[in-house]
Design a protein that fits this description.
This protein is of the alpha/beta class and 497 residues long. The protein has helices spanning 57-73, 96-101, 104-127, 143-150, 168-172, 180-187, 192-199, 207-212, 225-239, 302-320, 335-347, 352-369, 390-395, and strands at residues 23-28, 31-36, 54-55, 79-84, 89-91, 93-94, 131-136, 139-141, 153-157, 163-165, 205-206, 218-220, 257-259, 262-265, 268-273, 278-284, 326-332, 374-379, 398-401, 435-437, 444-447.
């Protein structure tokens, strides 16, 4: 197929350092340096040049790969410095010509993926002990500043011309697309009146004003930038909990086979039914009991292998198969083995490798949750929706469970059952920070029990494990996602406990 602006390419999200065109990664002990030097002629689609360190989806795919490899392959890295490779230019943000020639669906998926990558950077700082520091060697505009905002600290060169800005509103008439305003106000705690002015000032702010307003943490002369960034990196190294002597786990190439309308990985498969705009996704449980030392299996450790495959499949389907609007999800395999791995993930949560696997699965569930498709979980006899795989059912828009067995197939089969464990009480929170499963933990989003009789216009759910409603294990044939008043069941309308 000839790739043009009207016919975007089939995008592959799997890459490796030897294939990078836009980024370089250097590891020096506990500090890694990530440098952005975009190949102007390296765009995914013809029709634009990536000037001034602007980026498209291909640039961010490489950044996502870097974030993942730093977490799994370099446990000794405790601080990450991201900087620009051009003179007086950190990053000009998303390429405007690329956006202008892209379809609406492409732009939505592009912005969604770039924001998820920035969420991953923040997650590395919060949960992996890998502090990201933005060393702005020049101007950071639009998406370039949004990348800096994802870092824990921002140091701007004070040379009289370099600035930080969000010029989307005055120049393009659109809001920043990857969390700029949210992070300015909610993360950096910039006053809202100042944030309003900042978002309407295309040239942004430089030096001392950027520091005073809280847009950056420090502004230093160019000849002092490297020293200041190194000081902050060493300070982050001293406070990090990551091990200094652990061996990394290489993220080996994914074993993926595309055969006609099927995509097959180890533990994940998909059958594409384009005539009915549907894809059948099956996630399989492990073949063996969990190993005594999870890191010894490396990328073949079942929770990691399954998560990598599911992550790649989600990205492939939502980017390359926009007409497949219905995703039907099943879980197959031995629930006992799934529960054994589920228990191990909790028992060894303090291990750096297990910690990374748990948070990777959490991020993949978040990616699934914000995917704009109708996702249906089918719970049948022989299902493996147990423990961490039960989160797949909870992440779906609808869950349908067979009551009993298929009498025309196997009358002696074990009826469909979904098994919840303590991991479903908050180990894998959604994007809003709450568990998908609400009743057991008291702070959930998705599932609520059938309402008790109303009193004075309000209702209180029955207590946990009551005779009226028991989730351990959950074998009812229907489920409800919320109180019915809104799809997210926001805290302000959540029923009183």
């Amino acid at each position: 197929m000839t790739v043009t602006a009207e016919t975007p390419p089939i995008v592959r999200f799997a890459t490796s350092p030897d294939r990078y065109r836009h980024w370089t990664l250097e590891v020096d002990g506990a500090v890694a340096t990530v440098t952005l030097r975009v190949d102007e002629h390296g765009g995914l689609v013809p029709g634009y040049e990536l000037k001034m360190n602007s980026y498209d989806l291909g640039v961010d795919i490489e950044l996502y790969d870097i974030v993942q490899r730093l977490r799994f392959e370099h446990p000794q890295v405790k601080a990450v410095v991201v900087t620009g490779g051009l003179d007086r230019m950190f990053c000009a943000g998303a390429n405007i010509r690329m956006l202008a020639q892209s379809s609406h669906a492409w732009k939505v998926n592009f912005c969604k993926f770039t924001n998820e990558t920035r969420n991953g950077i923040e997650d590395a700082t919060a949960n992996s002990g890998q502090t990201w520091i933005a060393a702005l060697n020049g101007t950071a505009a639009g998406g370039g500043y949004e990348l800096a905002l994802a870092c824990d600290q921002i140091v701007l060169v004070d040379d009289g011309s370099s600035a930080v800005s969000l010029p989307e509103v005055p120049l393009l008439g659109v809001l920043p697309g990857t969390g700029g305003l949210t992070r300015v106000v909610d993360k950096r705690h910039v006053r809202k009146d100042r944030a309003d002015l900042f978002a309407t000032k295309p040239e942004g702010f430089r030096g001392g004003t950027a520091v005073e307003w809280g847009l950056v943490d420090a502004a230093v002369p160019r000849n002092a930038l490297a020293e200041e960034v190194a000081r902050r990196a060493q300070q982050a190294v001293r406070t990090s909990r990551r091990p200094s002597d652990a061996a990394g786990v290489p993220l080996t190439p994914l074993d993926r086979k595309d055969e006609g309308d099927t995509i097959v990985y180890p533990y994940v498969s998909a059958r594409l039914d384009r005539a009915n705009h549907r894809v059948e996704i099956t996630v399989s449980g492990p073949n063996d009991a969990p190993p005594a030392a999870p890191a010894s299996q490396g990328a073949d450790y079942w929770p990691l292998a399954m998560t990598r495959a599911l992550d790649d499949l989600i990205l492939h389907l939502r980017t390359n198969e926009p007409d497949l609007g219905i995703w039907v999800v099943r879980a197959a395999g031995d629930p006992a083995r799934v529960l054994a791995h589920d228990a191990q993930l909790r028992e060894l949560a303090g291990d750096w490798f297990v910690n990374e696997v748990r948070h990777y699965y959490k991020r993949t569930l978040k990616r699934l949750d914000v995917t704009s498709r109708s996702i249906i979980a089918v719970i049948e006899p022989g299902t493996a929706f147990a423990g961490l795989l039960a989160e797949l059912a909870l992440a779906a828009d609808r869950q349908y469970m067979l009551e009993g067995v298929y009498e025309d197939r196997d009358e002696d089969a074990v009826p469909a059952t979904i098994v919840l464990t303590p991991s479903n009480d908050g180990d894998y929170p959604m994007g809003n920070g709450l568990s998908a499963w609400g009743p057991a933990s008291g702070a959930g989003t998705r599932i609520w029990p059938p309402p008790a009789p109303r009193s004075a216009g309000r209702w209180t759910p029955p207590p946990r494990r009551s005779s009226a409603w028991s989730p351990w294990p959950w074998t009812t044939s229907t489920s409800r996602k919320n109180c019915g008043s809104c799809w997210r069941n926001a805290p302000r309308c959540r029923p009183t406990r």
